[in-house]
Structure formats: C-alpha cells, structure tokens
Write a structure and sequence with these properties.
The protein has 223 residues and is an alpha+beta fold. Helix content is 43%, strand content 14%. It contains seven helices and eight strands, in the order ββββαββαββααααα. The strands form three sheets. The protein has a four-stranded antiparallel sheet, with helices on one face. A two-stranded antiparallel sheet has the order 1-7. Strands 2-3 form a two-stranded antiparallel ribbon. Helix 3 packs parallel to helix 5, helix 4 runs antiparallel to helix 5 and helix 5 packs antiparallel against helix 6. The radius of gyration is 23 Å and the shape is elongated. The chain starts with a strand and ends with a helix.
C-alpha cells in the first residue's frame, strides 16, 4: 500500500526507453542496517552531495539520494563511485538495483528525514580513471607505430608503463597483458616472443624509474 517514486527521472513508461527527463539524482539503498541514523551521520561526514535520506519502510535500512550529473549515460559510473566510497570508507554495501535509472523506491514516513534543496547542494565530478587514460594513450601509441619502429615504440611505452606502475597508477599483470594484446592487434610481427620479452624486460626496468607525480598530473589534465 506504500507510494513509490522514481528519483532518477520522469517517464512515460517506467523503463530506460521511457525516460523523458533525467533528474540528476541517484538513490542508494542500504539494507539490514541496525541503526540507520548512525549510518546517516557517517554518510554526512563524507561530504558527498547528499540531497535526502530517510529510514526505509522496514525501519532497518536507509535510502539516501545523491546528486549525479545531467547525463543519464553517466548514471552507472556515479553508482559505482558511491558504492566504492561506502564500501571502502564505511564498510557497508548498497543494493545493486540503484544503478537502474527507472528503479522504483518505496517511501515511508520518517520524522527524522534529512533533506536539502538540491539547488544548494554542490555536485561532484567523478575522478577520471587514470589507468584507463594511460591504456588509451599506450594503445594509440602502439597502433600508430610504423613498420621498422615497432620495437623502439614498444620499448618506450613498456618502460613508461613500468614508471606508471611504480607510482600506483596501473597494475602490473593487467598492464603487461594489455601491452601484449595491443602489439598483437597491431600485427605484422616477425617474432611475437621477442615482442613479449621486450615488454617484460622494459616494464621491469621502468619500475625503478617512477614517473613524477607532477608529470603525471600535467599529462592527465590535458584534453
């Protein structure tokens, strides 16, 4: 008998295809919480763009509505970001259904509801994935290599990747695998094993030469 609301938009039919207007809001649902108000205070301390929060109808959960952005395509990314924040900083899990834009949320009476006019709640931009930016650069660098310069370019980019690894920007195993896949996709290799050895050797050397944080920030801030 409870009313419900779809916080993330207006619809002609409650489906992703029926979305008329995206609200720029995302609902995070916390289930099986002994003290929802204690969790609410912990969430407020994170200084995230919280617009509203109230105890779930059961009394053993919390529904919290945050700002996302104006682009519905970014909705899953914001969900993933908030999910990671709550897991890493508060040790709590959220209901996965919040990543769906047409998701319905049952509402209940809560005399202790938290509410802020969204106009006065500053939004946040998601931090760009530095590893993804590096992988995009590395792949383009390898694919653009001409015959006769593949080995030189592979040496440079694998060494650079080792430096990024030393700064904690990329992981080791996945980066080595990524570079190997990229050079195979480039094709026209005389010796695949030699190319893979070049990657492994140069990556290892690069680990002893971390790229400076200033250089990384300067490059990754470029359009």
């Amino acid at each position: 008998m409870l009313d419900f609301v779809a916080f993330s938009g207006r619809f002609n039919t409650r489906s992703r295809e029926g979305l008329l207007n995206y609200s720029g809001l995302i609902c995070m649902d916390f289930d099986n919480i002994k003290n929802p108000y204690k969790l609410l205070n912990e969430i407020i301390d994170l200084s995230l763009p919280l617009v509203m929060a109230f105890a779930s109808p059961s009394g053993h959960g919390l529904k919290a509505i945050f700002k996302s952005c104006n682009n519905p395509e970014m909705h899953p990314a914001y969900f993933k970001y908030y999910e990671s924040e709550f897991k890493n900083k508060l040790g709590v899990a959220v209901d996965k259904s919040g990543k769906d834009i047409p998701r319905a949320c049952f509402v209940s009476h809560d005399p202790n509801v938290f509410y802020m006019n969204s106009k006065f709640v500053p939004g946040i931009e998601l931090p760009e994935s530095r590893s993804e930016l590096f992988y995009d650069f590395a792949d383009k660098y390898i694919q653009s290599s001409k015959d006769g310069e593949k080995h030189t370019k592979l040496t440079k980019v694998a060494y650079l990747a080792g430096g990024y690894y030393a700064m904690g920007i990329v992981g080791e195993n996945e980066t080595r695998a990524f570079l190997k896949k990229s050079i195979v996709n480039r094709g026209n290799l005389a010796d695949v094993d030699l190319a893979f050895k070049t990657i492994d050797d140069c990556f290892e050397k690069g680990k002893s030469a971390p790229v400076s944080k200033e250089d990384i920030d300067k490059y990754l801030s470029q359009s």
